[in-house]
Structures are given as structure tokens and as C-alpha cells.
Amino acid sequence: MRKFTAVLLCLLMTGSILAACGGGNNSKNNASGNAGSSNNPASASTNSGGDASASTDDIASRKVTIKIHYPTPDLTEMRAQEDDKIKRFQEVYPNVEIVKDDWQYSVNEIGIKMASNEAPTFYNTFATEAKFLIEKGWVADITDLYNNWEFKDQMNPVLQDQFIVDGKVYGIAQNGYITSTVVNKKLLDAKGVAVPPLDWTWDDMYNAAKGVAEPKKGIAGIAPMGKGNEAGWNWTNFLYEAGGDIEKVEGGKVTQTFNSDAAVKALDFYKKLKWEANAIPQDWALGWGDAIAAFKEGRAAMVIAGAADIIEPALNQGGMKPEDVLTYPMPAAEAGGKHTGILGGNYLVINPNATKDEQEMAFRYITFDYFSDKGLEATEAIIKDRQKDGKYYVPQLIDYYKEDSEFGQKAKAIYDNYDNVYKYDPNILALLDGKPEAQYGTQDYYGTMSNVIQEAFSKKGTDSKKQIEEAANTVQTKFFDAVKAE
């Protein structure tokens, strides 16, 4: 698996037009965007697929209904942002009826949704799912729409390329992340624990977690995710930091590679946090939302996820202050090592069962605010509204566009104008080392490793080497052997 550190340093951004919230093993719901910078259908259509001169007036006059990906009820601010976008989109395309659908992608539900024809016209998914969805035929080939889009060359290739397979385009990148650790400085200060250096190690993480933890008061030094596939996802960052990997692909076969000393080392570190430091929550079976909640409520000093996904609720729901919420890269296994974190992203893909008109309108909706001054104005309005309400806007680290593009510079200028936009320490960028998620059987691997982690947290003295060997055998025989890799 190749590293993207050098490229990422050119692309990393302290901003995101689309504020993301995390879920599962990646980020969660996104306020999506769509490409037109004009208020009349003819000019806006040049940002969509197809031949503008031949088909624009036709599709803009025909009645089309699309069922859109919509944020869940708990994400009130993101729903308001999406409602504003719907209003603006229908001013340009009054012929389009929009149906809201707040179903969120699940690997266990997508097949049923497709079989019953209940899937939205477009839906959200994450970086690991590209080849899985393509193989199942559950995602549309949008190559022609994408190639006829005027902004395709300004897309961030680190993100977008993960949904380009064999030269064909199957999705549009929304934003991305490199898994980070977010630290509650206030909890450290209260216990007199020194704030670790940015160039930190596993030992630094261990010492800080142990020093902060107060089990009798329900305060954990760190809250690693302990249930669901997200538990395996969280732990895999440590596998990477120890120099390990998940799989290799040769001759059309996928072979596990995590039966390794690196995996044993990473699992042993988790056990130290649990059994030696007593630093993880007593009720350690935390899903993604549980871990985020523990942080925002001051019950955990450290949580691992996409940074914005932790910071957003901590500031706007937990009442924390920016100066007390510190963003760190993942710790290096040893001094001088790499701060490797999983590189993931959020994508919008189009339902292959939709008609051609529905697919084109879905593409136009998805990209409606991309590279658009209207989109920037909408984002600035959100920042201002949050400022009035005493709330913060938290950008993502990596966005759909190239940082050095004209649009990227415009976005940065807006963020710099407001004191309620969360600012990342620029020194972090030089330390981040993003490694893409495996493309075959990733969720199956995560789920298997989640079982390993649960056993390690529930039974003292388990044999890490034996656990890893058994997990590797399960993943290989039950999942990887069934994959026909391209």
C-alpha cells in the first residue's frame, strides 16, 4: 500500500465547504454540493454531464424526480444547510422534484435497498466501498458525466482517484480525512499532565492516558472504539504505525498480511492501555457515536477519528472551547517513526437503476456547489449564522478540490476572516502520513478484528499472537479467498 504523505502536504487544507460528521469506520453524514455557479439553467448545465448545446434545454424542461441523500434528524445544522441548497437548486431547475431520504449507507443494507428498488437516486458511501459496489453492480458508471464536467481537472486526485477504477468514474469525492487523535487539554491540565508534543509516540499517548484516567469518576484517558467495525478501524491505525499492513494483491488473489509482528505489537499496546494503565472506559464497548459522545461530554481525554468529526460536536454541543480541543496526528510507534493514519473519504455515488435523466440531475445536484461562488457564499452565511449563535464552523483537513486552485484560495480567505472557524495547528501538516484503506474485504477484516479487540478488552492475559493468527485465518478463508481481484 503506497503512502501519500508528500502529495498530501500539497493538498491538505484547513477547510471544507462540506462539513462532515463521522460514522461507522469513516466519516458519517455530509451536506453535499452540486456544480452550477449561475442562476439560469443554460449556463449551469455546462457544469453537468452530456452535450450542453443538445440536451440542456430538454432536460431542464422535462419533469424529473430525484431522491437525494439527506442528513439524519440529529444533524439539524446540516439539514438547514441542505434545505438551503435544495431551494437554490430548484430555482435553477424548477422542473426537478426532490424527495429527501435520510438513509445512511450500510454494507449490510445496501443489497436489500437495491433489490427492493428503495435506494436513493444517489447515496453516500466511503472510500473502502468502491470495488465492492462496482462488483455488485450497485453504483452507476458516470464517466461521461464526469468527463464532460468543466471542473474535473481541479478535483483533488488523492480523494477522487479512489473512485476511478480501470479508467471509469463511479463516484464524486466530498471530502477526506487522515485519522487523527483529538485531545481534551482541559482534562490534562486538571490532572497536571503535560500536553504531549505534536511529534509524539505510543509512550507519550500511554503516559498521558494513564495520567488523566480517573475510573472512579468515570473519566477515561482514551476511548478507543470497542464495538462494531469501527473498533477494527480504530485499531488498524496502530497496525500501520507499527509497520504492518492488511493485504496484498497478486495474480488476481488477495492475501492477508496482518498476521505479523506488527499486529502483535499493536494489539499488545491496546492491552497495555486496558490492563496496565486502566485508561480506557470501564464500559469499553463503544461504537463510533459513543466514543465521540464520551469526548464531548468530558468523559474521555482522547478519541481517535477524523478530527472534524470529533471537534464539531465537542465545540457546538459539548460547550468546549477551541483552545482546549487539540488536534494531533496519530502517534508514532517509536521516536522518529511515521505518524501514520488511515486515509479515508466520503463519496456520493449514483444509483444504476435510475433513468438517464435522473442520473444526470443527480450528478448536477451533487456538484451544484462545487467550485461555485454561490457555494462559497452559502458557506460564509453558515459561518456567520453560527457566529451569531455562538457556535463554531469546523473545516475538514482534506477537501474535494486542490488547495492551490483559485477556488481553494478563495475558501481559505473566507475561513481566515472569522474567529469562529476552528484553526488547525499548521505544524501538524508536516507530520501527517496518510495511508489509504484496503480495497478488498475491508469491512470484513474490520469486523473480524473488532472481535479480537473485544476479547482482548474482556479477558486479561490473552495470547496476542494466537489471536492474530486465528483472525488472519478467518479473514483469508472466509473472505479473501472468495475475492477475484482485478
**Dominant shape:** globular
Distance N terminus to C terminus? Answer: 15 Å
Average pLDDT, rounded to a whole number, is 87
Whole-number total of structural domains:
2
CATH superfamily membership of the largest domain:
Periplasmic binding protein-like II
- Backbone CA Rg: 22 Å
CATH fold descriptor of the largest domain:
D-Maltodextrin-Binding Protein, domain 2
Largest sheet: 5 strands, mixed
Q: SS-based structural class?
A: alpha+beta
- CATH architectural arrangement of the largest domain: 3-Layer(aba) Sandwich
**Could you name the ranges where pLDDT drops below 50 across 5 or more consecutive residues?**
1-55
Q: What portion of the residues fall into strands of 2 or more residues? A: 15-25%
**In CATH, what is the class of the largest domain?**
Alpha Beta
How much helicity do the residues have? Answer: 40-55%
Number of helices: 19
Please report the total strand number as a whole number: 16
Structural notes for this entry:
There is one protein chain. Helix 11 crosses helix 12 (261-276) and helix 13 (288-296) packs across helix 14 (307-316). The chain has helices at residues 5-11, 41-44, 52-61, 76-92, 110-115, 130-136, 143-147, 157-160, 185-190, 202-212, 229-241, 261-276, 288-296, 307-316, 356-366, 373-388, 406-416, 442-458, 464-478; strands at residues 20-23, 26-30, 64-69, 96-101, 122-126, 164-165, 168-169, 172-178, 180-184, 247-250, 253-256, 302-305, 325-329, 339-350, 398-399, 432-436. It folds into 2 domains: 5-177 and 344-432, 3-Layer(aba) Sandwich (D-Maltodextrin-Binding Protein, domain 2), CATH 3.40.190; 180-305 and 441-482, 3-Layer(aba) Sandwich (D-Maltodextrin-Binding Protein, domain 2). Helices cover 40% and strands 16% of the residues. It is globular, with a radius of gyration of 22 Å. Strands 5, 8, 14, 15 and 16 form a 5-stranded mixed β-sheet that branches. The chain has a 3-stranded antiparallel β-sheet with strand order 12-9-13. By secondary structure, it is of the alpha+beta class. Mean pLDDT is 87; it is low at 1-55. Strand 10 and strand 11 (253-256) form a beta hairpin. The protein starts with a helix and ends in an 8-residue tail after the last helix.
